[in-house]
């Protein structure tokens, strides 16, 4: 009995149970005699759609296109956010220049830029990556700045009284002390990348996961829509897990590790 | 030689504004080279402010301080400071913390290893070199702090209630160990505390300050022999000094 309880406490077990319960519930609902499979396709149909799209190659093409956009937008957006965020958070004059701009632009959802970006750059790969870049940058930069501003003064003073110059303090104290915030910024940016990716592909794309979703709606392929949703969820989940592993590695020193 | 002289120092926060507050007034002090001095006083007497100014963390509004004749302006490796709060860098191991200062100046790997080895042993942390600060107790982290400042080889050590957060036993142990390190290095130490017994036990000279505004009230030369032992805390001479100074502190 105690062994079973120990197992129940396990994170993995509970996680699997949680997902399995949702699946079970879904199976029960779709097995009701009055369920309309066109609206709520059974799991078997969703799986069939997965096989069909895999064998035709369309799923991998779409996944490849989407992942490329995610990585490009995420990489460029977070890199810019890290560089600019550090400068804003550490050097007052730079903060005074950029802070009003960022505060003014921050509440604007990245998707609001889609019309103007399409007008300026057309429905191009560049436009889609740009939207994701903006989304990643905006959520990430705020966290980087917060991290730099929350560096405990006593660490700065300690380094300073040991003879560290301003830039040395920035490099050896501020950056490591801000790491927890920076990593959080990266994780939020990754989530933002996924949400903006699908939205930008729904509106303007000839391929990608968002495009497959849109196609599913147009041809009433509910099973395909469901399948893509599961794929997106799985991908985002896996990426977040990888990120947490990197985080755990970088944050070995911290008390607040997971 | 590393003598600090405080010369007619007055400090007013917000000088010139209606809410100006004078925290230190007419401070004249000399900290002889190699001496151990303590500054005591109730909270609000400006003792920490005075110490931070010696470190160069901020400047007095009037008067000046010199180290061997050079006016103190800005922080410097020559004036190391141990803070009341925990200032050990949590993202560095014990050894990396110890060698932080020398690494700033780009010492060779051999030198760095030698410094780490020496000071980890000096502060009694042998075997903990590769631990993270979070794995250490409060007292051990303070040892890292002190070792790190010593390893940086300053001329003067400024200590701002470094043992304030420790329990009584740990505190006494740390005081004895600090004295031993001080004797071996002969560096000038200025030690701020509100604990009279701590001040008397450690120092050649105890400076008593009064509050609002902070002024020098009395300077007591402590002639207890060195090396000091824990038993001395209970001698008549020790208690007499304590009684005398206790009466001068504002309660």
Write a concise keyword list for the protein shown above.
heterodimer; A: 258 residues; mainly alpha; MetI-like fold; 11 helices; 80% helix; B: 251 residues; alpha/beta; six-stranded mixed sheet; four-stranded antiparallel sheet; 8 helices; 10 strands; 25% strand; globular
The CATH topology assignment of chain A is MetI-like fold
Through-space gap between termini of chain A: 28 Å
Pattern of helices and strands of chain A:
HHHHHHHHHHH
Instruction: Output the CATH class name of chain A.
Output: Mainly Alpha
Outline the biggest β-sheet of chain B: 6 strands, mixed
Order of helices and strands of chain B: EEEHEEEHHHHEHEHEEH
Main beta sheet strand tally, sense and closure of chain A: none
Instruction: Write the CATH architecture name of chain A.
Output: Orthogonal Bundle
Could you please describe the fold and organization of this structure?
The complex is a heterodimer of chains A (258) and B (251). The mean pLDDT of chain A is 90. Chain A contains 11 helices and no strands. Chain A has 258 residues and is mostly helical. Chain A is flat, with a radius of gyration of 23 Å. Chain A has a single domain (55-250), classed as MetI-like (MetI-like fold). Chain B has 251 residues and is of the alpha/beta class. Chain B has helices at 47-55, 94-98, 100-104, 109-122, 138-151, 168-185, 196-202, 236-248, and strands at residues 4-13, 21-31, 36-40, 62-67, 70-71, 79-82, 156-160, 188-193, 205-210, 215-221. In chain B, strands 6-7-8-3-9-10 form a 6-stranded mixed β-sheet, with helices on both faces. Chain B has a 4-stranded antiparallel β-sheet with strand order 2-1-4-5, with helices on one face. The longest helix of chain B is centred in the last third of the chain and has 18 residues, at 168-185. The mean pLDDT of chain B is 91. Chain A binds chain B through residues 152, 154-155, 157-164, 168, 172-173, 176-177, 179, 252-255, and chain B through 55-57, 75-77, 79-81, 83, 85-87, 89-92, 100-101, 104-105, 132-134, 148-149, 152, 158.
